[in-house]
Design brief:
By secondary structure, this protein is mainly alpha-helical. It contains 4 helices and 2 strands. It has a two-stranded antiparallel ribbon. The structure holds iron/sulfur cluster. The site of iron/sulfur cluster (SF4) has 12 residues, from loops.
Length: 94
Amino acid sequence: MNKEELIKVWETFTEKNDFMLNPDKKHVEVLADGVLKLEKKHGLKLCPCRLGDGSFEKKVELLCPCNFKTHETWLNPKKGMISRCWCGLFVKRK
Ligand code: SF4
């Protein structure tokens, strides 16, 4: 899967949901590059902005998309920001 295909999959994932891909396309592309790089290294599409500990449990937790609605950045976004996953790949629809 290449970057464009991955972004298309993410777009499809957001359809009919209360979140969407970050409108900052450059940010999304950087994250897609990171996910694909980790997939090449570890065989799994892992979160590009959080560290694992090598355990299987942590890898499952860091599979992208993750369970981001439990993140503090989703539940209690900083003032002036909208809810988002930790990396800012997915943001809440307005
Ligand atoms: S924080 Fe965002 S980019 Fe990271 S795994 Fe979760 S959904 Fe993916």
